[in-house]
Amino acid sequence: MSIEKAVWIRAAGEVLPHQFSQFRRRVDLPEAAEAVLRVSADSDFVAYWDGRELMRGQFSDYPAEKTYSEIRFRAEAGTHLLFFDVYYCGIDFSTGIRGDAGFWAEFGAGDSICGSTPAWEARINPAFLRDRLDKLTSQLGMVVGYDARCEDDESGWCAAVESARRGRPVPRPVPLLVNREPVPGRLIRRGSLRRESREGSYAEQVAADRYGDSPGNGFWFLYDLGSEYAGLIETEVDLPPGTVVDISHGEHIADGRVRNRIGDRNFTDRYIAGAGRRRWTLRRRVGARYLQLNVIPPDPVREVGLLRIALRPTELELPPPAEFDCDSAEACRLYRNSVRTLQLCMHEHYEDTPWREQSLYGCDSRNQMLFGYTVWGNYGFAAESLRLLARGQRRDGFLTLTAPSLSGPPIPAFSMIWVIALWEHYLYSGSRAVFDSCREQALRVAETVLALRDAETGLIHLPASGELWHFYEWCDGLEGNRRDSGDSQFEAPCSLFAVEMFDALFRLTGETAWIERADALRRAVYAFFWSPEKQCLLTRRDDGRTHELVQLLGLYTGAVPEEKRRTVLDGILAEKHLRVTPSSMPYLVRVLAEGPREAQLYLESRIEREFYPMLAEGSTTVWETAFGQADFNNAGSLCHGWSAVAVYYYHACVLGVRPEKPGFAEIRRSPVATARIRNMRGEIVTPSGRLVFER
């Protein structure tokens, strides 16, 4: 028996951010055996066995709590090569925290176990460029440059060195992503271009290209994948050595080409061709429907040999989604697009968008969980995202803006929504395990909020410091751009989310103190924010704007007393307030579904007005906001998980199925009135299986 204990190692030399390394180890097997390989890295890896890819993808963990990925396979007798491509980010993003460069591997077959040690060979990969260090976005990661002319360079290999000491990693909590068959791009436009600028990021150079100029010094090609996908860009080319291929990705072509440079965002990576026919895979996952290649040969040529451009989807393994069918073609299509959006926003954890950020937020993920429970019953995946957020609790008691991350000021409302999501997980799954594991963090969030209660008014009063982001939704007056102006500044949504959080904690713990705190806060909100003149709840006393979200929260949490509920509801139906955006529409669904027939029919029309224009635009997913790509200064996402509320509407309201008790131990069936959907049939996934309902 041969046992070689694994330690953390790295390539020799200076450790730099955005660094690509390689490791290798020859393995002799006297006979065929079942093999197991476990790998961990800061920040990412691809593992190969005799040149064949075995697995890729580090779980989005915290530097001090590293996890390993595992694969089992049949290994034949003989001498084999274990080979690893490892990437070290070394920069804080919304998707990860800077840690120490390091790689850990353990291979076992038969009686032999070999682990990563300084005896392994390692080197810095010479093919990856360091001519520029540009961020794709401030949230997501770095732009990649690659020179295939260096692929045949075998220099630089030497003994690895031991890296910063860390303990043995633990198994990753969610399965490895599945690589699907590549989706080939369909060429829809092409032409010549002239590149005159060699300055700035790759995206800036592409943005400065002049198209259609003759004579040009390059070519451009635009490909349509036919639908939005999330995965790895693959290319196959036969180009003169030194040809620059700038690969841009995006969700639309509203400008006639891919919008690759937006503000300081750079959606272009670079590949420099080597001699002969070559394949290359961009290792960073992208979200895109369109791919654009700007090709600049080193010398004038009449044609270039682009053989293939494709995107290989990398997906979380899920069961087939719950089926939904009805006599409205638009409703069926919206349901499918919303389910597709949810799927594209799940990988290592929930993501807000696969294109721009790929980040785990407390609010976004709460929506995605709520919408997805009855589609897949993916309670385990949701549980791990909730735990990942819990590990990001700060010293002040709030959760970090995203997880795992140290970037950006936290949003107190998102921390409260995370606690609410713990209750909803219990309600739908029937399991208290997630709350039990996160109980300490949940109570600390609540106690942090309680400590901000104003003695005179009884309201929650967020401090004015820039350490907190007073965000509620992307609506004028609620986006948090205006900071608290002093003692007179109270915001109704903050206290209303606190009411909902206290109610959730009462249901989770059974402790009456939480319901007493919720009741006191309900009364305080109405006493302070009710406007006899406007007959609604104000958002702030000194703000003339009123918001639909505040009215919905007031009705949903019971802060609006019974005698005023119809008045507030009528104001919503008359659209007297600034309307909610998709992120807050679950409250619109919940409140209006409980209202009279006219409220239910209005709800149907709101869903159609919000999302049917996306169908008319040919979108295969649902957008971040109704303004689509034009929002946020032309940086709006066209695939955003928090907007898939139509799934929730069709399941909880049109089919009318909701859990009355945890785990669907009792089911509430109360379909809402609809004007354009008369016949429907659908599945609801529960912990005990799939249930079919018709109407």
UniProtKB/TrEMBL annotation:
It holds the Pfam family Bac_rhamnosid. It comes from the Bacteria. One of its GO terms (biological process) is carbohydrate metabolic process. Residues 322-654 form the Alpha-L-rhamnosidase six-hairpin glycosidase domain. Residues 221-298 form the Alpha-L-rhamnosidase concanavalin-like domain. This is Bacterial alpha-L-rhamnosidase. It comes from Victivallis lenta.
